[in-house]
């Protein structure tokens, strides 16, 4: 593709060379550059890739995109290299990548979901609703990339702009006419989603997070970046109950649809929701009031108050896209998120589920939700990751001891630490929380799962937390297959659990 096609509509300065230069691909990792490529120099938090300009030139790069001047004599030493200057090369890379892949987002109905909590579950719900409505739908987020017949993992919730545009091209070429994606504050701030316009943007909630070196300097900045989504969409579906909503929406340019429970909203759930617990489902049912005053019952196949908020956000998206009540309610009844409060239906006597919760806040929220189902015992199987902060271990021990009836301490991804040392740290947290809580220590996680099933009582609710959708176990840096759902199902089949 000619460079002049890639830069069409962008503001830049041609430092040297020609816009008729042919570009074979776009790169931002100097080690991957091949002859004829365009390399984008990015000023990062750890390094400035302008420092690698000579290396990429030696590799045969045809075009260099820069944000500031290069070292003295560089241009004279590489007269055949085309150099373009942009005010912001991250933004430039996003726009150049979109052009290189043929602006795939414009071929699909784009739905972006932002917020601190609930993004992953809400994107799954929206995808299920879109699918029920007959749309071929792709999804991008924490759990990876999904489109019909395909799934693979990602390193970031919102991928770097080049990878994101490549994925969108993949989805469009596979026939997807809709894409729902998680949009992180980092993704917006670092221009990973620059140039993408969303048909619908969704705001779930906001709590202090991602604040510190290399992330956001303050909560206010964090909130402001999330709010940028609502300057890039046609319709914003927002949480009327969140105290940050008004500030987050400052400067918004979209039409708004609100949802909530406590405050007036376009789509409002009654506060007296009902808990549902069967072998196949741990969920909720609530009465929904629509803008015209019409009320109807909604059933969601996931538990707790937070599931109601995620469902309300999904309903708002469905209404914004004119999907109809049938697909919306069918989608909500059938949504399952791998590794997020995921029921493993092996017994009528007890309930067992897996969840990714691996820090104090997530564990507390999950266990509070499960406690509302009034189990005979709330049993928690958990450990903590190795080569990570000990504070997380203390916090997990404290929260789980306070909120559970019985604990099974075991390994998580130990990495290069001894599981015994990690469990000793967890015990310190237990001593601070509820020292007299009954618990056992079973270092091998598979043995711990077997123990939990073998010793389950009628009406127990067993939460296996920390790994969720992960498909491996990390011991001393070696990852081996370990998918908890399959292991639980296999053991139940072997032992004849009823």
Layout of secondary structure:
Blueprint: H1 3-6, E1 13-16, E2 26-27, E3 38-40, H2 53-58, E4 63-66, H3 74-77, E5 82-85, H4 89-100, E6 109-114, H5 119-132, E7 137-141, E8 144-147, E9 150-152, H6 161-173, E10 178-182, H7 185-189, E11 198-203, H8 219-227, E12 233-239, H9 245-248, E13 255-260, E14 267-269, E15 274-277, E16 282-289, E17 295-300, H10 305-320, H11 325-334, E18 342-343, E19 351-355, H12 360-371, E20 378-382, H13 390-403, E21 406-409, H14 419-433, E22 439-441, H15 445-454, E23 461-465, E24 472-475, E25 478-481, H16 484-495
Parallel strand pairs: 2-3, 3-4, 4-5, 6-10, 6-11, 7-10, 11-12, 12-13, 13-14, 19-23, 20-21, 20-23, 21-22
Antiparallel strand pairs: 1-5, 7-8, 8-9, 14-16, 15-16, 16-17, 18-19, 24-25
Helix pairs in contact: 4-6, 5-10, 5-11, 10-11, 12-13, 13-14, 15-16
Morphology call? globular
Number of strands: 25
Radius of gyration: 25 Å
Low-confidence stretches: none
Count of runs of 4 or more consecutive helical residues: 16
What is the strand content? 15-25%
Q: What integer is the average pLDDT?
A: 95
Helix percentage range: 25-40%
The biggest sheet, with number of strands, parallel, antiparallel or mixed sense and barrel status, is: 12 strands, mixed
How far apart the termini lie comes to: 62 Å
Secondary-structure class: alpha/beta
